[in-house]
Amino acid sequence: MAQYIEQYQRRRLISSYFSVVLSIALVLFLLGILGMLVLNTKKLGDHFKEQITISVFLKDNAKPVEIDQLQKSLAMAEYTKAATYVSKEDAAEQYSEDIGENFQEFLGYNPLKNSVDVNLKADFVSPEQVTEIAETLSAKTYVDEVSYDKPLISLLNDNVKRISLWILIACAIFTVIAVLLINSSIRLSIYSKRFIIKTMQMVGATKRFIRKPFIATNIKLGLFGALIALIALAVVLYYVDINFPELNLFQDITVLLILFLSILGLGILISYLSTYFATQRFLNLRTDDLYY
User: Fold this and answer.
1) Could you confirm whether domain 53-148 is CATH 2.40.110.10?
2) Burial, 107: exposed, middle or buried (Cβ in 10 Å; 0-12, 13-18, 19+)?
3) Strand pairing partners for 80?
4) pTM, whole model, 2 decimals?
5) In what order do the strands lie in the sheet with 80-86?
6) Domain limits of the chain?
7) What is the mean pLDDT of each run of 10 residues along the chain (292 residues)?
8) What 3-state DSSP class applies to 58?
């Protein structure tokens, strides 16, 4: 009978520890994902901004020297990420593939023009700057038209600002939730030992002596949960980096190291504070209050 009770208590203890570790790991993993979003919001925004293309259409009488000079000047411009010359033949071939038929056979000629497609650097993708760049290019005598999606640029800038704000708000909310959930899990595990705490106190043990093993145990659980969260976060980041290499998530190792150490420290800190205040609460309770 005594052996059965001992096994039952051991299973309950293991179950309690598992719940604490799992709750810490899940919450810290979500915080890690949000942390990565916060740190990479600008990078994600820059990635989408740099997909914006300005098409500089050239007149049919534009000389090869002028076209070559334009392409080189655009490639060297401070606002340019990439400048690609697209001949009217290449443009017609691409358009035919897009619509699924050869439109030149129907029209009898190629109405498209030679062009230079310019991808801007993210810092220059704003309605005002793009308009200024387009006006400068349109002033050239051999440029027929400068085309770009102005509404998309305005929408993209507004959405990046809005998303950044909401990510910060979500991160703050999840941080509070993380503290509350981890605190609740640790308090429940200590609640089951409230009679042991009070018994130790009644035989003369000091509060510090009673708290010490509980704090040490839960710090270990917090550390273990944080390590699990970091492993899961590293797997997710590796998967994202493989599928979206243009984001360069592992480019700034220092930022990743700070994030990982912050998650590790947060797991330990929350575990320590939650354990300290939970044990202090039961230490301050009267014996009769332990039954409620």
Assistant:
1) no
2) exposed
3) 120
4) 0.61
5) 80-86, 115-120, 53-58, 143-147
6) 2-47+163-291, 53-148
7) 49 64 82 80 78 84 83 85 82 71 66 82 86 86 84 81 80 77 75 74 78 85 88 88 75 82 86 82 65 54
8) strand
